[in-house]
Amino acid sequence: MTFHYQARGIITSGAYVLLVRAKGEDKTFLPGGHIEFAEPAKQALKRELWEEASIDAEVGEFIGAAENEWFERDTRNAEINLIFAVKTELQALQPVISNESHLEFLWAHQTEMEQFNLYPVSLRDLIATGVSPEQAFWGSGIEEKSVEAE
């Protein structure tokens, strides 16, 4: 099993949201990436945005968290994504060039998260309905299992 602790950002311009995908894959995700050991999440997100696409960002309010799990080559993966609002100078539909050859960035209308296959799935409704920092978001793509008493 592999565990991923990540910081992701919601970057919007009008009704558009910036998404990322690995080239050749059909799933998209929010920009960001792994948090290093003892690194503050906001700092990790700012670093990842710069490393991935030279995006100069102001990481803002904590929006919430989303957990997810998937299998890759017979290995179970689980992740917790800390989600933040992000302000940048980027404009909707302006191309964002990746610094990493395996990633590509794209703009998607906030109502098209299903068509863009956004993961974790729990983020789709959050983005489609609009982000509200007044109440922290929690979403899960992990099935609940019964816990037996020891």
How do the helices and strands line up, and which of them pair or pack?
Blueprint: E1 2-13, E2 16-22, E3 32-34, H1 41-53, E4 58-72, E5 75-87, E6 103-109, H2 123-129, E7 137-140
- Give helix and strand order, one letter per element, not per position: EEEHEEEHE
Tell me, what's the shape? globular
Strand content: 35-45%
Radius of gyration: 15 Å
| Secondary structure tally, helices | 2
Task: Bin the helical content.
Answer: 10-25%
Poorly predicted runs are: none
Structural class: mainly beta
Mean pLDDT: 90
Distance between termini? 23 Å
Largest sheet: 7 strands, mixed
What is the count of β-strands?
7
Give a nutshell description of this structure.
The protein is mainly beta and 150 residues long. It is built from 2 helices and 7 strands. The mean pLDDT is 90.
Provide structural commentary:
The protein is mainly beta and 150 residues long. Strands 1, 2, 3, 4, 5, 6 and 7 form a seven-stranded mixed sheet that branches. A hairpin with a 2-residue loop joins strand 4 and strand 5. The longest helix is centred in the first third of the chain and has 13 residues. The protein is globular, with a radius of gyration of 15 Å. The two termini are 23 Å apart. The relative contact order is 0.26. The model has no long low-confidence stretch (mean pLDDT 90).
